[in-house]
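Table S2 (text version). Query chain:
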Amino acid sequence: MESFSQQCLDMARSMLSHNLDSINQDGTITPVEGEEPRLDEPGHAALAIGEFYRATGEPELDGKDLIDLAARCITQQVFRDPPQENGLAYAALALLSFGPSKERNPVWERLVDETRERLDKLLLNRSDYDNHWQTFNIAKAVCRFSLGLSKKDETGRLIERFLDRIDQTSSSGYFDDVDDGIGGSYSLYGVMSFVFIRQSLQLHSNPGLRERKLPSLRTYAQKYIKILPDLVREDGLGWAFSKSSGAYGQMHLISLLLQGFRDGWVPDDRQQKYFDLLRRLFYFFYVTFLDQEHGYLIVRDQERTAFAGHTTRLSNFDGARYLSQWARLSKDVKAPTGAPADPFKSGCRFVIFDKSNKKEQGLLLYRNVDSGLQIQMPLVSCGAKPTADGLPFPHSPGVLDWPNNTYLPILIPELTFRGEQYIPAFYGKRCTTGLGFKRSFYFRYEQPDLISTNEKIANNIGSCKVSWTFAGNKITSEFIYTVKNQIAMDRFRYMLAIGSPHSNHRVDSSPMLGQEGLRCQVLKDDFQGTWKETEVVTNDPTYRANYGNLHYLQTLERDYPLIMRPGQTYRLSVSFDPDIIAVGETE
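Corresponding structure-token output:
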């Protein structure tokens, strides 16, 4: 892993070199043109510098004093108004990255007394969170105790509280990033939380506490590690759903795997398999999101975009932080020897995140090795802020695409009653998977009550049954609606998004649509929708994906009322047989 470590350091050095000039004299961060700065960016920049220092021991980069830059960023973060707990947590870990105590910490020596006093006060003051922000409290507690600002260590208690709440919100032990709506926001922030907590513990001045808490963390973090063989696509695409995927969908998983290898969380008999996954994840990240000529991270350009909160500066500092972290972690990881990893197999499984009387939620994973089709289909909450990233349809970038950070009813029907839009998303009951005819797989769930796009359950309208069937390369979906009382449906809408991988930053083995496209066929439509004129969105920045550009939106719509009657079923059945080719076949 020595060469991998050096490669990561070289990229981190280059990435920092391109972004250190954005740090102003007062520690604020100058955004790239066309973007607005975030209030927590100084903290992220400080931790990136701190991780680079931990990995290299170098106090300078390109003639710039890293100690001084870190002190500036930390000072700016400490005096942010209003205080930013997330940025403060990153700044706290950044401070510890330069030394485990005040007496041997060059950045602490650069801070003036006023900054030290305010930092002490802010680290003590904290709100209690039941989402991923609780990890920031853990980082603040680690810093406060390790620097000797407090004789009482709250780290262990905060970690236990964090883990207890996982058991309260998930029957299977997955992290619910609790938000508004129906509950069950099982997103990439679950992976990020364990990565961040583990990094905080590594900086704790008491190694005994770290050893006591690692077994508990392992119990939950391993659940994410175990789904990676079915989650990671053959070309190396990692976590592809939820609002914060894209480059972070690669970076968080790589960190989790490297931490898992270091801590012995990867089973010995599967090390070769997971090492192969690590290689694929990194290669996809390297080719897809890095400008290899100039050496910086690209999360948005003329062909793709990212989660609105992930500014270019923030992503670059986070990228440099992760690369430095990987360089350090990989020195403790030995490449496994022996037989090559087992090849991927076709299959289908539903990972249950939560199963209760109220709701069932999870993630469907399907792979067909013959065609290269692989999908991730989440049935989770979007936190009452719906975007296509988290809706229950087959997510497969390059084949079945969707707009990032934008709501559209992609591959699912949207029914409007009394001015409210309802979609078969966010929760299910009686979720089942199994083998169907001719080696097909099916996934079915029911919604006894319809749910609106802002995740409000309507008890007096009707119900929906959903069925997805996967047979090789063919996908068939069926939605069956019934109503409790006669009601007028104001509008029906169902949409397809046609996109393509990035024209330059893409992996040759990635799947994409050939000339025949999705080969969509409407088998049954009791809503009597008609296909509207195809909307060309190639140059519309509203409709871009994490991995490439969207070109067309196709809408099946009924824009006048339909009287729906009880005792009658209303079906929509649509099939797809996508023409899939590899990106390299087009060149």
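Notes on Table S2: Residues 95 and 107 are 7 Å apart (CA to CA). The longest strand covers residues 491-501.
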